[in-house]
Amino acid sequence: MSLINEILSYNKDFVETKQYQEFLTTKFPDKRMVVVTCMDTRLVELLPKAMNLHNGDAKIIKNAGAIVSHPFGSLMRSIIVAVYQLDADEVFVIGHHDCGMTGLNSEVVIANAKARGISDDVIETLGHSGIDLKRWLTGFNHVRDGIEKSVNIIRNHPLLPKNLPVHGLIIDPETGRLDLVDAAYPPAPELL
Hints:
This protein is an alpha/beta fold. It contains seven helices and five strands, in the order αβαβαβααααββ. It has two domains: 26-100 and 141-180, Carbonic anhydrase (Beta-carbonic Anhydrase, Chain A, 3-Layer(aba) Sandwich), CATH 3.40.1050.10; 105-138, no CATH class. The protein has helices at residues 3-16, 43-50, 74-84, 106-115, 120-128, 133-136, 143-155, and strands at residues 33-38, 58-63, 90-96, 166-171, 178-182. β1 (33-38), α2 (43-50) and β2 (58-63) form a beta-alpha-beta unit.
């Protein structure tokens, strides 16, 4: 069975048997928080469990490396909407150890794109259009660097209130342990 057929078949049963009822909530985060995290598959269930988050508790935004790469990109727009339209009061940027964005080599990504059919003409046209693929497809040397940069962009965004707490953490993708990188306010000493 193809993946789409498997998904649609499961979904039909899911809806018909009303399994969705346990997930009913509102669009407003109960814990009034936004989590910016990585799209890593190991974090899908681990991160919410490690943070004691349940369906409806938080707005969770995922991308490669939990990187805020542009102050006016779609990720920042999502944070701004969460704060001003959906009542979020704190932001948590959570990267993880063993992240695929650590040491990401743009040359390898571009070579893989070409191997899957993207032509040299497309790559060159993008370059002539002012898109620096080598810079855009670069990660970070250490996950901590990415977290600190993202926290800084959010904290200093001209459209966000200066008193918005923004925290940076790193999660272990095996154990779920959270290590504090940057706190907006001091945590309890016994938690450090």
